[in-house]
């Protein structure tokens, strides 16, 4: 057994790298490209320490023997890139608040219901950011049903999102002091989102390559910095899933480095809101 705090220096063989890459892609659709394989040592070091495993090659041997199915899940979750923070790239959120939501108020007046899906939500910061947009303007949304769903392929991240507790470092990323104090309460375990935010949200484990979660049609879908890690064919399949889950007049928000060009023929950039995409026929109507 390794001593607590012992630093592990690992030499990772090409065959081990390929096996880990194959496991990640089979479970999530994400590719572990050569440019990302440098993360293997950092991503897996804590897991190896916990299990007393001395090298990644030893880890691979345990995985191949198949005696511990739960270990492969831990490995996959460790390899996922869960980087996120509150109001990440704030400009798209400003567009949603000032323009998209104003449009939805007009279009959904008959049902007074808005449905939003954050796909690949990681530990939930994006979902809580959305909840704050509504909670900070209660008079505007009085009498409305706001259904905000956060999903992620990682069970542990979904668990963290439901709990809504963040470290001092995490809660300060993207939030001003007033927002932090207003919507989070400091406790022994960190800063926890206010109950009014937590009770307005729902979370579930979901892979974007699977059929869309209930209710299946969303007015706004956020899928940011997830598609970057998929190969071309898998990304096209993901876009098909997202497009089919998007309401006819809804919006899809992607990350700054992502686009539908050449990947999603049914979608097109919104000409008035940079970073948001709509069904192509809706863009044509607006022209």
UniProtKB/TrEMBL annotation:
Keywords from the named record: Methyltransferase, S-adenosyl-L-methionine, Transferase
Pfam family, one: CheR
UniProt-listed GO biological process terms: methylation
Record PROSITE patterns: CHER (PS50123)
The enzyme's E.C. designation: 2.1.1.80
CDD domains: AdoMet_MTases
Molecular function terms from GO: protein-glutamate O-methyltransferase activity
Family annotation (Gene3D superfamilies): Chemotaxis receptor methyltransferase CheR, N-terminal domain (1.10.155.10), Vaccinia Virus protein VP39 (3.40.50.150)
Residue span, CheR-type methyltransferase domain: 10-284
UniProt name for this protein: protein-glutamate O-methyltransferase
Upper classification of the organism: Bacteria, Pseudomonadati, Pseudomonadota, Alphaproteobacteria, Sphingomonadales
């Amino acid at each position: 057994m390794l001593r607590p705090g012992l630093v592990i220096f690992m030499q990772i063989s090409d065959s081990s790298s390929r096996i880990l890459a194959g496991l990640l892609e089979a479970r999530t659709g994400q590719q572990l490209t050569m440019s990302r394989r440098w993360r293997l040592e950092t991503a897996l070091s804590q897991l190896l320490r916990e299990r007393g495993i001395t090298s990644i090659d030893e880890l691979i041997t345990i995985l191949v023997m198949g005696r511990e199915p739960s270990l492969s899940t831990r490995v996959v979750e460790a390899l996922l890139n869960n980087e996120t923070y509150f109001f990440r790239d704030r400009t798209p959120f400003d567009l949603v608040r000032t323009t998209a939501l104003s449009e939805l108020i007009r279009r959904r007046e008959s049902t007074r219901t808005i449905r939003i899906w954050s796909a690949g939500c990681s530990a939930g910061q994006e979902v809580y950011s959305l909840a704050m947009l509504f909670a900070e303007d209660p008079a505007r949304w009085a009498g409305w049903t706001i259904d905000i769903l956060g999903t992620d392929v990682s069970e542990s991240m979904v668990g963290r999102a439901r709990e809504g507790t963040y470290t001092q470092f995490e809660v300060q990323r993207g939030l001003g002091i007033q927002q932090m104090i207003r919507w989070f309460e400091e406790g022994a375990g960190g800063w926890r989102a206010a109950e009014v935010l937590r009770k307005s949200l729902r979370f579930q484990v979901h892979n974007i390559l699977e059929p869309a979660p209930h209710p299946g049609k969303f007015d706004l879908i956020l899928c940011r910095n997830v598609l970057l890690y998929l190969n071309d064919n898998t990304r096209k399949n993901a876009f098909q899933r997202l497009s089919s889950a998007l309401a006819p007049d809804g919006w899809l928000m992607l990350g700054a480095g992502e686009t539908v060009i050449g990947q999603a023929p049914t979608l097109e950039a919104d000409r008035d809101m940079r970073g948001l995409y709509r069904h192509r026929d809706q863009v044509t109507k607006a022209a």
